Amino acid sequence: MDQIRLAFVGCGGHSSGSLQPNVPMIDEIDFVAVADLDESRGAKSAKRYGVKAYTDFKEMINTENLDAVAIVGPPEMHHQLGIECLRMGVNVFLEKPPAVTAAGAEELCAAAEESGKAGMVATMWRHDPAHKIMKQFMEDPEFGQPTFFEGHFIAPGPRSAIWGAETAFMGYLLAQGVHIVDCTRFLMGDITQVHTAAFEGEGGAVSMAVSLQFASGAAGIMGLAAAAPVLQTRMLVVGDGGGMVEVYNGNHVRASKKQSWCGTPGGYMDYPTLEWNQGWGQPGYRRIAYAEELKHFAQCLIAGEQPHASLEDSHQAMRVLEAIDESRRTGKPVEL
Ligand SMILES: NC(=O)c1ccc[n+]([C@@H]2O[C@H](COP(=O)([O-])OP(=O)(O)OC[C@H]3O[C@@H](n4cnc5c(N)ncnc54)[C@H](O)[C@@H]3O)[C@@H](O)[C@H]2O)c1
After folding, report:
1. What is the pLDDT of residues 294-306, one digit of tens each?
2. Ligand 1: centre distance to CA 196 (Å)
3. Closest ligand 1 atom, residue 179 Cα
4. Best exposed site among 107, 177, 247, 293 by fewest CB in 10 Å?
5. Is the CB–ligand 1 distance for residue 13 below 6 Å?
């Protein structure tokens, strides 16, 4: 097999605006069909990509001999339809978050296990070339053992209790926090303790500052704020071999190896850094990671490998989100 037969379930804003336009650029994907309850949405994608449109995803699966479906909608849809599609024998690519609770994500893991099919969740920061470069840099023995992480994700919203969440805090965690938590685990490994300080302003202007302890023993800090004027991200890691690497907005890497003090009085006068910026020529629509994550999914299915973020990765990320929220409510550290 050198291509997977893929269909989309859900042709809403993110699906038709950011994911589907990347598919024709990916050699490993044969885009064959779409399903949406809203006939006009499916028809639009069908016309644009020359694929068949259905309103019933089960009829589509039974007719099209699919290898995989990309399910893109609200998290309840990822959860419920994800389980049904796995049980029908197709691999699933699910938008984030995979469910509204960690228990829901765990049910998806169990369904994948039972069916022998693979699932991936589209927490795409880990597919940004800059975050992949960051991880490679951390793996250089000269970098040393990571000792410290600092990251933030500020965004205009959401500022409300979306998707049935009880608070604006949980709404922000489910919609945005899931990205930074997944990428933090991708870089640093498992998180074993969180302790959250929080602020709630008018109109859902929530913020959280989370202290983190990693299974590796490293310490970290994570900042999350809704109602910011811009969407901005940063990830920074320090290693005990003398390395430091940071990524700004998922597309700009700045890194330093061992302190190379050249003898200037004071010792802090020179800052030897390597920098990498994503250029114009990167192939991808809207954000290169949208193309990269879909390509990764297809390549893994072709090679018979488990794509990442796996359903288990997403389950662990959901556990961390729930722990951050529990610590916010109780004011106490939460162990994972
Ligand atoms: N990674 C990112 O950068 C990013 C950015 C934006 C949104 N997202 C994620 O994308 C998702 C939202 O996607 P969207 O904007 O495409 O959603 P949407 O709500 O606009 O669309 C969902 C579509 O699914 C259809 N649908 C619902 N139930 C169905 C069913 N049973 N069968 C077939 N179709 C069904 C609806 O008719 C609708 O057209 C969210 O989970 C969000 O977290 C991710």
Report:
1. 999 999 999 999 9
2. 30
3. 1
4. 107
5. yes
* 266 has a pLDDT exceeding 70: no
With a 6 Å cutoff on the Cβ, whether 292 touches ligand 1 is no
Cα 73 to averaged position of ligand 1 atoms, centre (Å): 2
- In CATH, which superfamily holds the domain spanning 126-280+317-335? Dihydrodipicolinate Reductase; domain 2 (3.30.360.10)
Ligand 1 within 6 A of 38 CB? yes
> Separation of 41 CA from ligand 1 center, angstroms?
11
Residues 4-124+288-308: name the CATH superfamily. NAD(P)-binding Rossmann-like Domain (3.40.50.720)
Q: Where are the domains of the chain?
A: 4-124+288-308, 126-280+317-335
Residue 35's nearest CA partner among 9, 67, 70 is 9
Q: State the distance from the centre of ligand 1 to the C-alpha of 175, rounded, in angstroms.
A: 12
